[in-house]
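Problem 12. The chain below contains 75 residues. Write out its predicted structure in token notation.
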Amino acid sequence: MSKIVISIVAVAAIATGGCGTTTGERAGTGALAGAAGGALIGSLSANAGKGALIGAGVGALGGFLLDQHEKGNID
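Solution.
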């Protein structure tokens, strides 16, 4: 069951990570999606806060990297 939840959250985070047109918007969207997914996954092991913090960091980084890729700065 938890693998299914993780897969769904990962797909949702990737799908919403591209929302926005500026670096800040994309990083912010990624952070929000990551925090929500991290809290959901963390709540399965009674660590929702820790999961949200980790998810927010990973989501913000993912949004930033996606933005840089879209701008052609990285491959």
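Discussion. The two ends are 35 Å apart (CA to CA). Students who got a different answer should revisit the alignment rule from Section 12.3.
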